[in-house]
Amino acid sequence: MRKYLTFMLMICFISVFSHCGRSRTATVSSTVPDPPARYYVNPVISQSTPDPTVIRDLQTGLYFLYGTEDTRNIPIYRSENLVDWTLTGTVFTDEVRPKGNLWAPEICRIKDKYVLFYSLWNGDVWTSLIGYAVADSPQGPFMDKGAVIKSRDIGVEQSIDQYYIEDKGKSYLFWGSFRNIYAVELDITDELVITVKEETKQQIAGNAFEGTNIYRYKGYYYLFASIGDFTNDTYRTVVGRSSNLLGPYADKEGKLMLDNGYEVVMGNSEQFYGLGHNAGLVEDDAGQTWMFYHGYERQTKKGRYVFLDKVFWDDQDWPYIQGGISSTKAVIPVIHKDGF
After folding, report:
1. What secondary structure does DSSP assign to 123-179, as a single string?
2. CA-CA distance, 249 to 197, in Å (whole number)?
3. CATH number of the domain enclosing 175
4. Would 48 be classed as within a structural domain?
5. pTM to 2 decimals?
């Protein structure tokens, strides 16, 4: 009897072991778990870097971000993934910087060079100007080329907050800050001497806006801007759209941005406020749209830090941020390093 029981226990053990083995093998072979999602938290740069602008280096795949010079001489940050940023230098030095306060840079690539437009403020709406500097690399060194637009010469108060765009073989600069938004066509030589075609100057939007930029999506041009006082809850990110680069831009009901019409993209939250002056929108390697902007932490009242959020599109192709407020935690952008 004892031998019989021992024999039966051995058979059960072998049967159970074999069954578990088959189950484990079947599970592994039929199901490959997805990699865990990676997240980031806002702000992505906890150092005052207002009015951010971002570009990708086509040689290395790295991203570079610049902002108003709360870090003197305009800071340069570098990232591999749009989330983790390292301060790597400045655009200018004390020896070569233009004289004045350097605000709201705009980085772009023109004729295989990196061109950084900047706003220069000397304390008066009629002495402000827009200048530019040129480099072979987004890391610099940048060489200042002087002014493109001077407020008094072009007849526009507070000529700052510029945005460069190319469209249908022509180059344009949009600019203005609470003194109406304008656009003008540029003449750019092979040596990157940039001048304005002053006869093409045109008003694009009213006096409610600052920090404009343009994004093309599904046959429309979207004019993003900020309204209100950046130090409080009135500051928000807004948008209008047009089928033409030079407008007219309007909200969903057809009210023109020339008459200060707009749609709100993002307002303030319990955690953050003063959210706006976004960079030109960027796409990740999965085709998702992302927006950098600055803001304050409500608890500490510290800012203007750099924030990042994904831009969604509704069924009428209007952009929005999920929930209409800045995220505190979100899935990171999709960035491939292969091919660079």
Report:
1. SSTTT-EEEEEEESSTT---EEEEEEEEHHHHT-SS----EEEEETTEEEEEE-BSS
2. 22
3. 2.115.10.20
4. yes
5. 0.89
Residues with Cβ within 8 Å of residue 213, at least 6 apart in sequence: 163, 174, 223, 224, 225, 278, 279, 280, 281
Structure-token match 């951010």, residue found? 52
Which of 80, 70, 78 shows the shortest CA–CA distance to 104?
70
User: In the block, which residue shows the tokens 């500097």?
Assistant: 133
Nearest alpha carbon to residue 185 among 194, 167, 174, 197: 197
Q: How far apart are the first and last CA of the chain?
A: 74
Mapping DSSP to helix (H, G, I), strand (E, B) and coil, where does residue 17 land? helix
| Full domain range(s) for residue 306 | 38-331
pLDDT per residue as tens digits for the range 190-239: 999 999 999 999 999 999 999 999 999 999 999 999 999 999 999 999 99
Residue 246's CB is within 10 A of a number of other CB atoms, namely 15
With 90 as the cut, is the pLDDT of residue 135 above it? yes
Residues 6-46: tens digit of each pLDDT:
444 444 443 433 333 333 333 343 455 656 679 999 999 99
Q: Which amino acid is at 176?
A: G
Structure tokens at 3: 């031998």
pLDDT band at 339 (very low <50, low <70, confident <90, very high): low
Kindly state whether residue 68 falls inside one of the protein's structural domains: yes
| Residues 295, 273 contacting (CB under 8 angstroms) | yes
Alpha-carbon distance 160 to 123, whole Å?
12
Cα–chain center distance at 133? 20
Amino acid at the residue 257: M
Share of the chain above pLDDT 90, in %: 87
Note whether residue 338 is domain-resident.
no
Q: Which amino acid, 315? A: D
